[in-house]
Amino acid sequence: MFKNITIAGGGVLGSQIAFQTAYFGYEVKLYDINEDAVKAADEKLDKLVARYTEFFGDQSKAENARKRISTTANLEDALQDSDLLIEAIPEKKEIKADFYTNVAKVAPEKTIFASNSSMMVPSDFAEYTGRPEKFLALHFANEVWKNNIGEVMGHAGTDKKYEEEVLKFAESIGLIPLHVLKETPGYISNSILVPFLEAGKKLYVSGVADIETIDKTWMAATGMNMGPFGALDVIGLNTDYSITLANAEKNNDELLLKFANLMKEEYIDKGNLGVSTGKGFYTYPNPSFKSEDFIVRQGQEK
């Protein structure tokens, strides 16, 4: 059974993974590349105390979870006595390959490596890990305390016993363990989500409709509580940008590339990353799509 967990990457999702893991009793070390990144991660972790208190209703447990997380910019220190490493670093192949090359040199032999990559697969990096049989993916969703899925996916060389161990770990930290039986980019969740988001992006940059109309159409037609652009704000525009750009270049998709450039220039470069910064395609904490008059159904008065 695991005891000590290392999280690599203190961004929006990395900090959430660290807090979720600590909340359910594990000792957690969070690693990031330099002291500035570590400081930013600490600030995110501090804010999560309130989010977990609000969601679970137990302030003492949330405060104790925060105390179980230490942060460091020293990779070797972060991996000392680690049972499981969960990697949540930027979604760029060269960055991940370099990371696994370095981590293979300092991680204890017992450490299982798990990647939280959104669209890349374990076989892309297995050769760099020095332990392909102990390497797999463990994929989380944003706002992990609420959207509590844990998709576990190995590659052809992963020993099945480690997949089972990580599935049990996922369940132990309050996730719904989901075993992806065949390696596929995007797992189950993103294989469904990404085409939905891309449809919204292409409608917008093609001039078919504005952002609110696209979201309103989807919400009114399906009963969902947000549309593609509201979902992008939750995911985080910086996270989605990497995925959108990679897919645009891979598929030579001019519309997606146009949207990626727009998102970077009009939003990301201005510090508007979505819910995490208070502004993205909508303004938070009270986005227009949550207002009572955003959608007026039959029998309602506007």
TrEMBL record:
The record marks 139 as: Important for catalytic activity. One of its GO terms (molecular function) is NAD+ binding. Residues 186-284 form the 3-hydroxyacyl-CoA dehydrogenase C-terminal domain. The keyword NAD applies. It catalyses: a (3S)-3-hydroxyacyl-CoA + NAD(+) = a 3-oxoacyl-CoA + NADH + H(+). GO terms for biological process: fatty acid beta-oxidation. Keywords: Fatty acid metabolism, Lipid metabolism, NAD, Oxidoreductase. Pathway: Lipid metabolism; fatty acid beta-oxidation; Lipid metabolism; butanoate metabolism. Residues 4-183 form the 3-hydroxyacyl-CoA dehydrogenase NAD binding domain. The keyword Oxidoreductase applies. This is 3-hydroxybutyryl-CoA dehydrogenase. The lineage of its organism: Bacteria, Bacillati, Bacillota, Bacilli, Lactobacillales.
